[in-house]
């Protein structure tokens, strides 16, 4: 039995959905739409991210954890809670790496968005809101933290420096630490009208001292009280201590663990709220 | 729906005829202050669908500020504003979803390729890739940038970047296009290409709102325009009617050398309808420029150069404000 079939070929008509649909989608998913843009830009330097993610831990773990460790451990491992020096510093390096990335991703690109190439003002004319543009930037950088920290943790594990079963949680701790340092910095970056080298100052006078005095290379309580406070206000210290708890079962008071989490969350949330507010304020003028 | 409600309401008030236009933009006493500075000082205008409407004025007149308020990115200090029947301050995303915006300064993403700039921008409207990919190609064709699709934005000339910005503004098929100084900084050839593209959009019924301080651009593109100075509307009408109302048919431009331009004024008294003395030249407004020139020479005056031309919006502006458009 044969059957005649008629096919009507019509050229597809290219029509955008209505403005109402655009607005409704943007209201709901706008931050993710902007995150997509940031991720596309990041893809352009994707290799740098991966190489940084792999190269930095390899260099640091080898230099500090293997080289320096031979000297440090000659004095006995007791000072480091009974674990090898490598295991002791690995969480600190992982957290510091995320914080240093935060110091880049939440500074120059923000000034680029507002001032240099004014990339924020493109999406600003679209249905997206300034708050969503801030949110999109944060989402994209958070994904970078996760990827970079996962790579970092992989290298740490290969060095045999994450003996505990919960070590992988430090990927999320590093991400949280990156946000808790980075988001207040983002709020500050969004207020900058003239570039007078403020970010270089942040690197030299905030990031570096935090990196050195946050119980990174030696326990914080070996420092005199006069500088110990640097650790207490440092996301790197709070993140590192948490990282040590999950990666090798470092023992500390449970309330202190809770303080670490709350401290990091509080800074991140405050930075998030301030960033969104500052973005809205700056773009509405 | 709200647009038609608005239009029908207005037609009852202002336009008793049946073919009353639907206003896509209505501004009443629109005002914007930055501290003590009043950038936009109580301006009112309406734009019907499909019109090419211009804001002509010098730098700092308040044109860009007005555009930002229409674009729903700057909050007004007072007055009312409605775009497609919506208040941009309450319905920012909805208003912006109707618009295409070409800002004064290009803000393309220079780290992305030409075509990716269009795709990414379309995503801000929640448009799917199945629509965006063919649409991006279509717009690159329209902007004569097809062979640059995979180039970095960095590699484009000023005119190409401008065309890409226009292509980007069209990704959501807006019915209203806002163009802030679209051809500033472009060479004459690039400007003509751009004007041609804008004409095509006008033919498709897109409402164009543009600011410019170029009188030729305003004359070429605008059906109707407002002349703005110091945040206020000085005059409103079509380019031809403005020239008719505020100037003569022709202008005689005379140069006597910078020393004499000012002093020669008295000797030219009575020639033409009006005399304007500028530092570099003297303008005589007359219906017949050649006849005016004959009168000048009959008085024994010998200008270094003389030129008879048609009146332009520049003359309208000079008449209204006593200043030139481009300083």
UniProtKB/TrEMBL annotation, chain A:
<feature type="transmembrane region" description="Helical">
    <location>
        <begin position="255"/>
        <end position="274"/>
    </location>
</feature>
<dbReference type="GO" id="GO:0140359">
    <property type="term" value="F:ABC-type transporter activity"/>
</dbReference>
<dbReference type="GO" id="GO:0043190">
    <property type="term" value="C:ATP-binding cassette (ABC) transporter complex"/>
</dbReference>
<dbReference type="InterPro" id="IPR051784">
    <property type="entry name" value="Nod_factor_ABC_transporter"/>
</dbReference>
<feature type="domain" description="ABC transmembrane type-2">
    <location>
        <begin position="48"/>
        <end position="282"/>
    </location>
</feature>
<feature type="transmembrane region" description="Helical">
    <location>
        <begin position="83"/>
        <end position="103"/>
    </location>
</feature>
<dbReference type="InterPro" id="IPR047817">
    <property type="entry name" value="ABC2_TM_bact-type"/>
</dbReference>
<keyword id="KW-0812">Transmembrane</keyword>
<feature type="transmembrane region" description="Helical">
    <location>
        <begin position="47"/>
        <end position="71"/>
    </location>
</feature>
<keyword id="KW-0813">Transport</keyword>
<keyword id="KW-0046">Antibiotic resistance</keyword>
<protein>
    <recommendedName>
        <fullName>Transport permease protein</fullName>
    </recommendedName>
</protein>
<dbReference type="InterPro" id="IPR013525">
    <property type="entry name" value="ABC2_TM"/>
</dbReference>
<keyword id="KW-0472">Membrane</keyword>
<dbReference type="Pfam" id="PF01061">
    <property type="entry name" value="ABC2_membrane"/>
</dbReference>
<dbReference type="GO" id="GO:0046677">
    <property type="term" value="P:response to antibiotic"/>
</dbReference>
<comment type="similarity">
    <text>Belongs to the ABC-2 integral membrane protein family.</text>
</comment>
<dbReference type="InterPro" id="IPR000412">
    <property type="entry name" value="ABC_2_transport"/>
</dbReference>
<keyword id="KW-1133">Transmembrane helix</keyword>
<feature type="transmembrane region" description="Helical">
    <location>
        <begin position="165"/>
        <end position="189"/>
    </location>
</feature>
<keyword id="KW-1003">Cell membrane</keyword>
Automatic annotation (TrEMBL), chain B:
<keyword id="KW-0472">Membrane</keyword>
<comment type="similarity">
    <text>Belongs to the ABC transporter superfamily.</text>
</comment>
<dbReference type="InterPro" id="IPR027417">
    <property type="entry name" value="P-loop_NTPase"/>
</dbReference>
<dbReference type="InterPro" id="IPR003439">
    <property type="entry name" value="ABC_transporter-like_ATP-bd"/>
</dbReference>
<feature type="domain" description="ABC transporter">
    <location>
        <begin position="25"/>
        <end position="255"/>
    </location>
</feature>
<keyword id="KW-1003">Cell membrane</keyword>
<dbReference type="GO" id="GO:0005886">
    <property type="term" value="C:plasma membrane"/>
</dbReference>
<dbReference type="Pfam" id="PF00005">
    <property type="entry name" value="ABC_tran"/>
</dbReference>
<dbReference type="GO" id="GO:0016887">
    <property type="term" value="F:ATP hydrolysis activity"/>
</dbReference>
<feature type="compositionally biased region" description="Basic and acidic residues">
    <location>
        <begin position="7"/>
        <end position="18"/>
    </location>
</feature>
<dbReference type="GO" id="GO:0005524">
    <property type="term" value="F:ATP binding"/>
</dbReference>
<keyword id="KW-0813">Transport</keyword>
<keyword id="KW-1278">Translocase</keyword>
<protein>
    <submittedName>
        <fullName>Lipooligosaccharide transport system ATP-binding protein</fullName>
    </submittedName>
</protein>
<dbReference type="InterPro" id="IPR050763">
    <property type="entry name" value="ABC_transporter_ATP-binding"/>
</dbReference>
<keyword id="KW-0067">ATP-binding</keyword>
<dbReference type="GO" id="GO:0046677">
    <property type="term" value="P:response to antibiotic"/>
</dbReference>
<feature type="region of interest" description="Disordered">
    <location>
        <begin position="1"/>
        <end position="20"/>
    </location>
</feature>
<dbReference type="InterPro" id="IPR017871">
    <property type="entry name" value="ABC_transporter-like_CS"/>
</dbReference>
<dbReference type="InterPro" id="IPR003593">
    <property type="entry name" value="AAA+_ATPase"/>
</dbReference>
<keyword id="KW-0046">Antibiotic resistance</keyword>
<keyword id="KW-0547">Nucleotide-binding</keyword>
